[in-house]
Amino acid sequence: MNNLKALTKKQLFLPIFSMILVMLVNVLFDIADGNNAFDFFSVSMKGGVLYGRIVDILNRGSEVAILALGMTLVVSCSAGTDISVGSVMSLAGGVCCVIIAGFGVTSVSTAAELAHPIWMGIACGIGAAILAGIFNGFLVAYMKIQPMVATLILWSAARALALLICNNMIVYVRMDEFKVFGSFLGPIPTPILIAAVCIAVLALVLKFTALGTYIQSVGINKRSSRIAGFNSAQIILMCYTICGLFAGIAGIVNTSRIYSADTNNIGLTMEMDAILAVALGGNSLGGGKFNLAGSIIGAYTIQAITTTLLARGVSTAQAPVFKAVIIILIVVIQAPPVKAYFKRRSAAKAAAKEAV
Amino acid sequence: MKKDAVLEMKGICMTFPGVKALDGVDFTLKKGEIRALMGENGAGKSTLIKCLTGVNKFEAGEIYIDGIDGPVVNKDTLDAQKKGISTVYQEINLCPNLSVAENLFIGREPLTKFGTIKRKAMIAKAAQLMKDMELDIDVTRNLEEYSLAMQQMIAIARAVDMECKVLILDEPTSSLDDNEVEKLFGMMRRLRNQGVGIIFVTHFLEQVYAVCDGITVLRNGQLVGEYSIEELPRVKLVAAMMGKDFDDLAAIRKGDNKDFSKEPLEIDAKGLSHAGKIKPYDLEIHKGEVVGLTGLLGSGRSELARTIYGADRSQSGTLKVDGKERKIKNPIDAMQLGMGYLPDDRKAEGIVGDLSVRENIILAMQAKLGPLHKIPMQKQIEIADKYIELLQIKTASRETLIKQLSGGNQQKVILARWLATNPDFLILDEPTRGIDVGTKTEIQKLVVQLAEEGKSLIFISSEIEEMLRVCNKMAVLRDGAKVGEISGNMTQERVLSAIAGGESNE
Question: Which of A12, A14, A75, B215 has the most CB atoms at less than 10 Å from its CB?
């Protein structure tokens, strides 16, 4: 009982609880439908690749999970959000495909048609996203512009720029070497692997360097941090740059899934999912302390909700409504007044027990 | 409830995670009485007051207020204010980005019948209030444009203006200079004569005897006793607070009148300045020397120190550190040269509130090492434990968030942060403000000890006695300029006359 109490106090308890809740709902649905109760968790091989709802959630949730990594750092250090990441994904995809296909070309399908090698396109796409991150970071850290306003610029401009670069067309790269980043590597969906690598690299960096302390300290109290020897502007710039890098990687994954730079749709509204993931993870959007694991769980929870709804036959157009209802519930359970209520209630219960 | 009492608290109990903050404390305040609430850091003074004002929810006990039947539980400070209890806290709780008038009337603005604010009326009332308090302040300017001391006075004016029966002053004088303290005392006496009961929390013993009628002493969350001022002379008060007889402060004294001119120079500043804050000055600090900066509040004491450390970038002149000319643009540059700086505004520039005590202690050390060389956790724990023990920091554990500590203990954590970097040159700006008598002595001893190890220090304090005890030399500041130095036979009279402008450069 005491262990359980200690557990509920942990920051990660509610994000994990929400995740489990979503899974439980799936189990109940399966039972109601007369399916095997644990259909949700079953993973099988079909056509040489892994197949199952869990695999699908991990696969589809990759982009938001990758974005949430950068977003967590940005929120922590600057008490603001980077709302440009969705558009920057589109920019990365556009730059990547145009470099590969050449300007004005709408489709390439053989190696001979390529203007530049695929690796160069990917590098340039991610490079463009990093530049976008540096631009955001410069505005926030050195020009002291509020993060929401600063990133609003690229939120609208990056997608338009991407469209311009693509000459107002959808540029297709129909080559397996490019498609692989959005499809399968062996039996495993490649996006899962890419997300795992991103998470692992960032987690290791945070574990073996003091960057976590630097970022949180700056996010909590900039002036104290400066007196204690931190250069807050540099740290904020770095966080936005990392956020741009991850937006670039997510953009390449998303582009590769549809093997084309559909700049109007790549990463559309994904910035909101990324911000939501950070909040669902129990991180304060007011900056300061952060928990990376929480954000990652948050990202996959969002995807789990979407996948569940689609699996239940809710149409793509209506899904956001149901999603909103579920998210309201999750956010409200985590709200301080609700937490305080449960705390009071358990205290009253304990007091009643003592009285008996 | 007693007949002439305005406030009675009985058997108040309150627990924080891991600490029993208050254990059955009684407290009585009479009408027209100024009562000092005394105790060391963590004795429970602030907690008791927060229970009274509704900030903390106490677990047991009752509160009675004159004119209200039955026990009172205040839901929040607004509720307490309605019942006639006004508070000015140790840290200023006003909005820096609002005007003085807005701050004075926040939450009780004079309204028109449409519900909008009568701005002119509010400004006129605010100006009148400032005049009554004998403060020279333009009420339309933002609060942040005034010094900490002025902000404190404004906070007090706000509390006084709210028809109060009980006025609580939680260390109101810690950022005021003597002149301003006298003004405040005048105001307190006026209010007392009007029948207001005043609870006065302070660490300055002199002030207790200057203005109070009675003393209530707490120790470790328990009531030691309620006394009238006559029955508790200074030595007995300190003994009651510390639970032991007082080790005489005068016992510490650095190597008297040692000649430092032959020692090598640690700091050699020539013509450093910062526009609008400190005019160009020269300052030499030898190895092993403690230099005091003295002057009235706002005379540029802190500002001078900040230009050396790079907290404010110097706009002229040259700085030699350990014989070599150096450019310091940011604090980190100064830190790499072995400097440390304990700022006077603990809340804004000292603590990183949401980090633990451990993280706060290793912060500067980590900054010096850079992000790539993380201090191993085992080492962090060792360092944190060492300083918690050494400075007797009262905390539930090393992982407690620093914001949950009392003000004095927070100060000790920041001090630990700099000691951990093992600096050659340390600037201490009001290191003992808000710290209890016992620890004050410990910190003064520490300063002398550091100097004996060959480290150089700048020591800034509003208490001249303390400065005389630890400093080898003093630089005197007036109106943003360094106007002279005093060394050799330093006495309180010489220092005071130098500050006032009687004694010139020698």
Answer: A75
Q: Is the pLDDT of residue A10 over 80?
A: no
Higher pLDDT, B259 or B355: B355
Residue B320 contacts residue B297 (beta carbons within 8 Å): no
Residues of A in Cβ contact (< 8 Å) with B352: 216-217, 220-221, 224-225, 228
B428 Cα to chain A: minimum distance (Å):
13
ipTM at complex level: 0.85
Q: Which of B439, B335, B455, B452 is nearest to B390 (CA)?
A: B439
For residues B188 and B332, membership in a common domain is answered with no
The verdict on a CB contact (< 8 Å) between B330 and A225 is: no
Based on the fold, state whether residues B131 and B204 are members of the same structural domain: yes
Residues in chain B with CB shorter than 8 Å from the CB of A227 are 311, 331, 341, 343, 349-350
d(CA B372, CA B286): 34
| CATH code of the domain covering residue A245 | 1.10.3470
Put simply, the answer to whether A289 touches B354 (Cβ < 8 Å) is: yes
Instruction: Please indicate whether, in this complex, the C-beta atoms of A213 and B364 are within 8 angstroms of each other.
Output: no
Judge whether B139 lies within some domain. yes
Task: Evaluate whether residue B254 is within a structural domain.
Answer: no
Mean pLDDT of A303-332: 83
Q: Which of B311, B330, B283 is nearest to B481 (CA)?
A: B283
CB A194 within 8 A of CB A249: yes
Closest-CA residue of chain B to A286: B354
Domain enclosing residue A119, as ranges: 2-355
Contact indicator for B312, B306 with CB cutoff of 8 Å: yes
Strand bridging mode B265-274 / B318-321:
antiparallel
pLDDT of A299? 95
Given the structure tokens 């009585």, which residue do they identify? B28
DSSP B356: B
Report if residue B299 sits inside a domain: yes
Please give the biggest Cα pair distance in chain B: 75
Kindly state whether residues B373 and B470 are assigned to the same domain: no
- B107: buried, middle or exposed (CB in 10 Å: 19+, 13-18, 0-12)? exposed
**What gap in Å lies between CA A305 and CA A75, rounded to an integer?**
24
Query: Cα distance from B364 to chain A (closest Cα, Å)?
Result: 5
For residues B441 and A70, the model is more confident at: A70
Chain A neighbors of B370, CB-CB under 8 A? 210
- Tell me the residue range of the domain where B483 lies: 260-338+425-506
Q: Are residues B86 and B132 in the same domain?
A: yes
Mark whether B324 and B350 lie in a shared domain.
Answer: no
- Does B343 sit within 8 Å of A230, measured CB to CB? no
Tell me which residues of chain A have a C-beta less than 8 Å from any C-beta of chain B. 208-211, 213-214, 216-217, 220-221, 223-231, 288-289
Phi-psi region at B288: left, alpha or beta (left = phi > 0; alpha = psi -120 to 50): left
CB contacts < 8 Å between A and B, how many? 73
Chosen for mutation from A205, A227, A231, A291 (greatest number of chain B CBs closer than 10 Å) is A227
Are B434 and B491 in a shared domain? yes
Domain boundary among B422, B454, B483: B422
For residues A302-328, average pLDDT: 84
Domain total in chain B = 3
Which residues of A are less than 8 Å from B341 in CB distance? Answer: 227
What pLDDT, on a 0 to 100 scale, did the predictor assign at position B503? 44
**Are B331 and B264 within one domain?**
yes
Q: What is the pTM of this model?
A: 0.76
pLDDT at B247: 47
Is A213 close to B363, i.e. CB distance below 8 A? Answer: yes
Nearest one of A299, A320, A298, A315 to A59, comparing CA atoms: A299
Interface touch A227/B368, C-beta < 8 Å: no
Q: Is residue B359 part of a domain?
A: yes
Q: Are B92 and B187 within one domain?
A: yes
The span from the first CA to the last CA of chain A, in angstroms, equals 19
